[in-house]
Amino acid sequence: MQEMYKVLILCTGNSARSIMAEAILNELGEGRFKAFSAGSHPTGLINPAALRQLRHAGHEVDGLRSKSWDEFAGADAPQMNIVITVCDSAANESCPLWHGAPVAAHWGMPDPAAVTGSAADVETAFRHAYAVIRHRVRQLIDLPLANLKRPELERQLAAIAVSAPDRR
């Protein structure tokens, strides 16, 4: 039986990038991964454009919610294998101590929720963010996690951070 890897994806507001990553990893991970998302200063709401993008791509959105990373810092919280930050501000904050000393990675990317302009501009930003996140999640899923020692896993996760989806 394969181990289920628990992954916590962090952002400041937990309203867009981390939420999309949670939904994508839970679906594509096909039971091998259990993803959670949280924010250091959660907005309490999921960005409507993130929900539209997830629905458009066929993801289930029921049960997704904006939440604090404090939910994952307590003694009764699930023990994470990997913690990934997707925004620069969350990566630079003092994170809680996570039980079990999970491997940490930073997959920074621009915040689509910060895009101003027309509705088409905003939707384009969310489509692009979704594509980048999906690409990175797919690479994570493809890693032979059971065979990687911590330093190699850290190296592989860092390499994923600089990868981009094929623009064909």
Give structural notes.
37% of the residues lie in helices and 13% in strands. It has helices spanning 17-28, 48-56, 88-92, 119-142, 150-161, and strands at residues 5-11, 33-39, 82-85, 103-106. Helix 3 (88-92) links the parallel strand 3 (82-85) and strand 4. The mean pLDDT is 91. It has one domain (5-161): 3-Layer(aba) Sandwich (Rossmann fold). The longest helix is centred in the last third of the chain and has 24 residues, at 119-142. Strands 2-1-3-4 form a 4-stranded parallel sheet. The protein has 168 residues and is of the alpha/beta class. The radius of gyration is 15 Å and the shape is globular.
Order of helices and strands: EHEHEHEHH
How many β strands by DSSP?
4
* CA(first)-CA(last) distance: 37 Å
Shape estimate: globular
Low-confidence stretches: none
The amount of beta strand, in percent, is 5-15%
- CATH superfamily grouping: Response regulator
Q: What is the rounded Rg?
A: 15 Å
Helicity, as a percent range: 25-40%
How many domains make up the 3D coordinates?
1
CATH topology: Rossmann fold
Can you summarize the main beta sheet? 4 strands, parallel
CATH top-level class:
Alpha Beta
Continuous helix count: 5
Strand order across the biggest sheet? 2-1-3-4
Report the mean per-residue pLDDT as an integer: 91
CATH architecture: 3-Layer(aba) Sandwich
Structural class: alpha/beta
Please provide a brief summary of the model.
This protein is of the alpha/beta class and 168 residues long. It has helices at residues 17-28, 48-56, 88-92, 119-142, 150-161; strands spanning 5-11, 33-39, 82-85, 103-106. It has one domain: 3-Layer(aba) Sandwich (Rossmann fold), CATH 3.40.50.2300.
